[in-house]
Amino acid sequence: MNAQAILDYSRKLFKEYDGYRVGTFSRRSFTPETLQNTLGELAEDSSGFLHLRTIGKSFEERNLRLIKVGGGTISVLLWSQMHGDESTATMAICDILNYFKKTKSEKITGEILLSLELYFVPMLNPDGAALFLRRTAQGIDMNRDALSLATPEARLLKSIREELQPVFGFNLHDQELSTVGSTKEIAAIGLLSPSLDHEKTNNDVRTRSKYMASEFVTVMNQFIPGKITKYDDSFEPRAFGDNMQLWGTSTLLVESGHLLNDPEKNFIRKLNFVGILTTLYAIAVNVYDKFETAAYETLPFNGKRAYDVIIRNIFVEHPNGKRSPVDLGISYQVDTHSELPPKLIDIGDLHTFVGLREIDGKGKSISQSSLSLNRVFEWERYF
Ligand SMILES: [Zn+2]
Question: How far is the C-alpha of 317 from the C-alpha of 366, rounded, in Å?
Fold first, then answer.
């Protein structure tokens, strides 16, 4: 078995993805009930192949579920949506479970499930997800709660790790709109092998996660070349990824980014499906460390040269009657999450920036009094 076999498998998955895609999510802002129903359906007629267990409740008493598949000796834990509005990987997890179910008699699936014991916790923050908000019902960012454990969701994640002692982990998120370094290319996938300390020291645990990242990048380069970034690798002592590595689980952070014309992130969901499954296969057949870590180490970091909307080719009319040619940069995001309403972030020459949506203002004028930086800007009223 070599690295080429992993790449061949990835292309097969990419080609056949539609056959495994779960059809229950019409939008990425689906409810916890939709997920519970989907998991119930997947497990119901699987003859025990997918084992579903309730591990506890969220602050607002919603069930948190753990799904087990496979019976190997290497334990892997995958968790998603600790930020309630970051649902892309949750959908991909359902696709992966559906894939295992439909292909359980096939050779590669057999190899994966013979070698690995897989545990999935999709949607760790169902209370946030119910409102499609980042934080938990307590108003806490649970990815800054790995040490203080003030939230039941964080306590459950930590206790599951202690119970299962996974060798490998996948920490699955959606990232803010970013570019590839300082280019105008929008980042579709961001990856991170979280740091163990401020000095970014390596040990065996972290090196293994760098191999996972390198495998993931190499696979993704076939489908989205030049659209993959490295996430900020500063040590965050309160975050789960960093602590999972410290606790001994080699953890890969996968951040679903953005693509033009993919507002519901269907294509990025597919990339998650392919990337996660191929990494699992590479671990199962023990070739994951055949991918040079340079593939990950040399990735450009996320850059900040993108806006949700850029309106180009307009004029600002000043009170003294003069006019200025400008572009407008508008953002729907605060920190790492999307939030309405849109805000005006920049006015001026934005030709070095890219918009997820680019609007041609066709030389139209707008009065200066309508434009306040960092304030709500209902741009659709004007353009
Ligand atoms: Zn997140």
Answer: 6
If you ran DSSP here, which 8-state letter would residue 26 be given? S
DSSP 141-155: -GGG-TTT--SHHHH
The CA distances from residue 358 to 259, 307, 317, 328, 355, in Å, are 13, 9, 22, 10, 5
DSSP state of 375: S
DSSP string, 293-312: THHHHTPPBEE--EEEEEEE
* Cβ count within 10 A of residue 248: 15
Q: Torsions phi, psi of 197, nearest 5?
A: -165, 175
306-381: CATH topology is Urease, subunit C; domain 1 (2.30.40)
DSSP 63-95: EEEEEEE---SEEEEEEE-SSTT--HHHHHHHH
- The dihedral formed by the CA atoms of 247, 250, 256 and 257, expressed in degrees to the nearest 10: 90
CA 172 – ligand 1 centroid, Å: 7
**Mean pLDDT score, 15-38:** 97
**Collapsed DSSP state (helix, strand, coil) of residue 56:** strand
CA of 310 from ligand 1 middle (Å) equals 25
In the block, which residue shows the tokens 């507002």? 263
**What one-letter code names the amino acid at 267?**
F
Convert the pLDDT of each residue in 89-104 to its tens digit: 999 999 999 999 999 9
**pLDDT the model gives residue 341:** 87
Q: Cα(334) to centroid of ligand 1, in Å?
A: 12
> 3-303 is classed in which CATH architecture?
3-Layer(aba) Sandwich (3.40)
What distance separates the 2 farthest-apart alpha carbons in the chain?
A: 76
Q: Where are the domains of the chain?
A: 3-303, 306-381
What's the one-letter identity of residue 307? Y
Tell me, in angstroms, the distance from the centre of ligand 1 to residue 282's CA: 25
Nearest-10 crossing angle of helices 107-115, 88-102: 110
pLDDT beyond 90 at 45 = no
